[in-house]
From TrEMBL, chain A:
Record's compositionally biased regions (Polar residues): 17-26
Protein name from the UniProt record: SNW domain-containing protein 1
Similarity comment: family membership: Belongs to the SNW family.
InterPro entries to which the protein is assigned, alphabetical: SKI-int_prot_SKIP (IPR017862), SKI-int_prot_SKIP_SNW-dom (IPR004015)
Function: Involved in pre-mRNA splicing.
Segments forming domain SKI-interacting protein SKIP SNW: 149-297
From TrEMBL, chain B:
GO cellular component: catalytic step 2 spliceosome; precatalytic spliceosome; Prp19 complex
Protein's UniProt keywords contain RNA-binding: no
The entry's keywords: Repeat, WD repeat
Subunit structure as annotated in this protein's UniProt entry: Identified in the spliceosome C complex. Component of the PRP19-CDC5L splicing complex composed of a core complex comprising a homotetramer of PRPF19, CDC5L, PLRG1 and BCAS2, and at least three less stably associated proteins CTNNBL1, CWC15 and HSPA8. Interacts (via its WD40 repeat domain) directly with CDC5L (via its C-terminal); the interaction is required for mRNA splicing but not for spliceosome assembly. Component of the minor spliceosome, which splices U12-type introns. Within this complex, interacts with CRIPT. Also interacts directly in the complex with BCAS2 and PRPF19.
Protein's name according to its UniProt entry: Pleiotropic regulator 1
Species whose genome carries this gene: Sander lucioperca (Pike-perch)
Repeat region (WD), residues: 117-158, 159-200, 201-242, 243-284, 326-366
Family: Belongs to the WD repeat PRL1/PRL2 family.
Gene: plrg1
Length: 494, 431
């Protein structure tokens, strides 16, 4: 290409030169006057020089082709031409380097070369000798022994290396705290990339990125259709996966609910049956009672002789019942206290109201208990505005002392209500020992228990003992009774 | 390597075969090609098309071997042209100005996995083989350096001392030293007689990614994430040169005895060839478009290869002239290794290994080894690979914490694993 263009230029010039001679009246090309006729002539313009250079015989400063003038520095490189006449375009790439530096700038440097045979000399490694020489030189270089200097023909020179004396008191000679920017790097090498591949329309389409439509911001206030707003949402791309354990849980709950209902139903049925049975039993009992009552009435109406006996029996029965009733109440009563004890704790106003006689000991003034421990007076009222205080009740329900006293605690003085004096002295007294004894009576024998048995004449003790030993197995009445109880209980459960 | 048979029309196949034959023989009589060739080609085309057109109706397998048919008919059709006859036969050395342009790739036996060594507790990042080929060293992300017996694969020794991933290891063949560098900015020299660290090379400002030893001079070169490579004197621990110029992490560095002695590849996608004496860049190769993570120097030839995510490129020394592209491994290439037989191995970040014929750039095998049981499938990646000194075993350091050893499959022959290679139809661009 370069050669062609140069040829072209030359041919054009020639043509121009020819035309200028033939057509122009006044030739723009001025030739300087030939040698010898230049006496009064001074070249003033560029064209006065023609093809040549400065005229040494004309003593005027001349600048043919503007060469030699003191120009302002410009970066422009002069066009250089190589040995074959081709313009060296890589002079730009070689600006800062030495002319020997290897720089690849041509397109041909990029092309793959022919595959060479292995034996070609270009591919062979340089000789070992050459290599050794270089290595030797380098070794000397690195280790500081320079080549032999001139010393009038001697092959070797003996050199003595001496360390230069350093003054121990000398401060450092150079300032090393200054930071200077790095110098410019060497000029960059031309980039020899192979031309990039052509991009097909299809590939370009693949790299298209759709514009971003934010779900939050809309700075310019564009109105964007809804389908574009949701385009990047990825709605249709995901399938929603629900864990199957949810279904399992629902099923389990359903089953459990059904089972519970069944159980409740069954229980209700059973209870109904039980209730019915109870009802029937009660009805039976009532019927029996009614029957008995009817019989008795009938019996009373018919029998007259036994009425008094019966009346007495009735009275006895009633009285027994009353006594039992009283005993039951006294045993099971929640207060579990005697009348006297109860009266002790009563407030004086209550005792007066009841008409109880004055208490024996009235050492100190007795106060109405209702006056104490009240949350009125100074302590009463608003409680400072606190609304979290729980002041619906001011006294505990029933009080703890009632609970404490509900629990059965047999005290040592249990006999005190029946025996007001010391139990022991009563036990020890000898009131029933006669002063004067009857003659012939047994005395001096200490009694062990209320009835003193004498020696067994008929061997009844032995008999009873034997009977006891075999008692467990050979008592039909008790065993049958226990069996009956067990069966009864079982029936009741069902 | 099995590839899907591309379905083309008969017309296309025939034309391509014609073109290939033309390209194959054009170099032998390059001077006389110009005008005659076009006419000749047209004649070829007509004759072959007629001949094949008749036969093809019945025989559909013909389309697989069009080149044979083409040559045959060409030979028949043109007895008179002498130069062509000469060219049509063998490659005449006196005639051929250039080497043949369509060389067939050399056959290499396929490689297969034969040992998996586990023992590391983190990614295995680097490998180095001892010059006597008895053992090899691996550096790992678990901060240890382990020495394994090469023959049996058993662990011999574990060295601790680094406080971060060990990124590079190198064994010296001139002294009993092992050198290691890590992401903790440390470069350590271990004495293998005492198994202790004897020297530290202090100066890097950031993680040190690779290390290499000069074969003839007692000098060590390391490269780092601080965009420099540093040259250290092994004995005095002095930082002889700091090779600046890269603008991003220097990922790989290689040393050789011949000029240029230091080559670095960086994440700024450039490769720099350095003049070790001056400490200056000799040439900058900017052909790559992505980070250059690995370099491999050919053991016999005066060439090297660089691996990057876009391509693997081959270059010539000493100026770094571009030779060719090895494309096809479309992954981030972490490591390259070259054999004397001309086998180039590229290991990638996704766990695949591609094996290439160095001279032609033909990919003859692809391996993706399974991960160690217990690892995820995504944990497959190769960080380093190296041939042992006998060049019969390939050792790879992987991301599933194992070391895999491969060897050539002895049972394979050219028939069982044929070279499935079709010459590239070069589209000559005018420039």
């Amino acid at each position: 290409l370069a050669r062609l263009s140069q040829d072209q230029l030359e041919s054009e010039e020639r043509l121009r030169a020819q035309t200028s001679y033939s057509t122009a009246l006044v030739s723009s090309r001025r030739e300087p006057p030939p040698y010898g006729h230049r006496k009064a002539w001074v070249p003033r313009s560029l064209e006065d020089f023609g093809d040549g250079g400065a005229f040494p015989e004309i003593h005027v400063a001349q600048f043919p082709l503007e060469m030699g003038r003191k120009k302002k520095t410009s970066n422009a490189l002069a066009v250089q031409v190589d040995a074959e006449g081709k313009i060296k375009y890589d002079a730009i790439a070689r600006q800062g380097q030495g002319k020997d530096k290897v720089i690849f700038s041509k397109y041909t440097d990029l092309l793959p070369k022919e595959v060479l045979n292995e034996d070609t000399p270009e591919l062979q490694k340089p000789d070992e000798e050459a290599v050794k020489e270089v290595s030797q030189l380098q070794w000397e270089f690195i280790h500081g022994t320079q080549g032999v200097a001139f010393n009038s023909g001697a092959k070797q020179r003996v050199i003595r290396m001496v360390e230069m004396q350093k003054d121990p008191m000398e401060p450092p000679r150079f300032k090393i705290n200054k930071k200077i920017p790095r110098g410019p790097p060497s000029p960059p090498a031309p980039v020899m990339h192979s031309p990039s591949r052509k991009m097909t329309v299809k590939e370009q389409q693949e790299w298209k990125i759709p514009p971003c439509i934010s779900n939050w911001k809309n700075a310019k206030g564009y109105t964007i259709p809804l389908d574009k707003r949701l385009a990047a949402d990825g709605r249709g791309l995901q399938t929603v996966h629900i864990n199957e354990n949810f279904a399992k849980l629902a099923e389990a709950l359903y089953i459990a609910d059904r089972k519970a209902r069944e159980a409740v139903e069954m229980r209700a049925q059973v209870e109904k049956k039980m209730a019915q049975k109870e009802k029937e039993k009660k009805e039976e009992k009532l019927r029996e009672l009614a029957q008995m009552a009817r019989d008795r009435r009938a019996g009373i109406k018919t029998g007259g002789e036994d009425t008094e006996v019966r009346e007495r029996d009735e009275i006895r029965h009633d009285r027994r019942k009353e006594r039992q009733h009283d005993r039951n109440i006294s045993r099971a009563a929640p207060d579990k206290r005697s009348k006297l004890q109860r009266d002790q704790d009563r407030d004086i106003s209550e005792l007066i109201a009841l008409g109880v006689p004055n208490p024996r000991s009235a050492s100190e003034a007795q106060y109405d208990q209702r006056l104490f421990n009240q949350s009125k007076g100074m302590d009463s009222g608003f409680a400072g505005g606190e609304d979290e205080t729980y002041n619906v009740y001011d006294q505990p329900f029933r009080g703890s002392r009632d609970m404490a006293s509900n629990i059965y605690r047999p005290s040592k003085n249990i006999e005190k209500d029946t025996y007001t004096d010391d139990f022991d002295t009563l036990m020890q007294n000898n009131r029933f020992v006669p002063d004067k004894e009857f003659s012939g009576a047994d005395h001096g024998q200490r009694r062990e228990g209320p009835v003193q048995f004498e020696e067994d004449p008929f061997g009844l003790d032995k008999f009873l003992e034997e009977a006891k030993q075999h008692g467990g197995s050979k008592r039909p009445s008790t065993s049958s009774r226990s069996k009956d109880d067990y069966h009864d209980k079982k029936r009741r459960k069902e | 390597l099995l590839q899907d048979v591309q379905k083309h029309s008969v017309h296309t196949l025939v034309f391509r075969s014609l073109k290939r034959t033309h390209d194959m023989f054009v170099s032998d009589h390059a001077k006389s090609v110009s005008m005659n060739c076009i006419g000749i080609i047209l004649v070829f085309y007509k004759s072959i098309f007629h001949s094949i057109g008749v036969a093809l109706t019945a025989d559909t397998t013909m389309h697989r071997n069009p080149s044979e048919g083409g040559i045959h008919s060409m030979a028949l059709a043109l007895p008179p042209s002498q130069s062509l006859l000469e060219g049509g036969g063998t490659r005449n050395s006196t005639l051929a100005r250039k080497a043949p342009t369509m060389p067939k790739p050399q056959w290499h036996p396929p490689w297969k996995l034969f040992r998996v060594i586990s023992g590391h507790l983190g990614w295995v990042r680097s490998i180095a083989v001892e010059p006597g080929n008895q053992w090899f060293v691996t550096g790992s992300a678990d901060r240890t350096i382990k020495i394994w017996d090469l023959a049996s694969g058993k662990l011999k020794l574990s060295l601790t001392g680094h406080i971060s991933t060990v990124r590079g290891v190198a064994v010296s063949n001139r002294s009993p030293y092992l050198f290691s560098c890590g992401e903790d900015k440390q470069v350590k020299c271990w004495d293998l007689e005492y198994n202790k660290v004897i020297r530290h090379y202090h100066g890097h400002l950031s993680a040190v990614y690779d290390i290499d030893l000069h074969p003839t001079i007692d000098v060590l070169v390391t490269c780092s994430r601080d965009a420099t490579a540093r040259v250290w004197d092994i004995r005095t621990k002095a930082n002889v040169h700091t090779l600046t110029g890269h603008t991003n992490t220097v990922a790989t560095v290689r040393c050789q005895a011949a000029e240029p002695q230091v080559i670095t590849g960086s994440h700024d996608s450039t490769i720099r060839l350095w003049d070790l004496i001056a400490g200056k860049t000799r040439a900058t190769l900017t052909n790559h478009k992505k980070s250059v993570r690995t370099l491999a120097l050919h053991p016999r030839q005066y060439t090297f290869a660089s691996g990057s995510a876009d391509n693997i490129k081959q270059w010539m020394f000493p100026d770094g002239n571009f030779i060719q592209n090895l494309s096809g491994h479309n992954a981030i290439i972490n490591t390259l290794a070259v054999n004397s037989d001309g086998v180039l191995v590229s290991g990638a970040d996704n766990g695949t290994i591609h094996l290439w014929d160095w001279r032609t750039g033909y990919n003859f095998q692809r391996i993706h080894a399974a991960v160690q049981p217990g690892s995820l499938d995504s944990e497959s990646g190769i960080f380093a690979c190296m041939f042992d000194n006998s060049e019969s075993r390939l050792i790879t350091a992987e991301a599933d914490k194992t070391i895999k050893v491969y060897k050539e499959d002895d049972t394979a022959t050219e028939e069982t694993h044929p070279v499935n290679w079709k010459p590239e139809i070069l589209k000559r661009k005018r420039f």
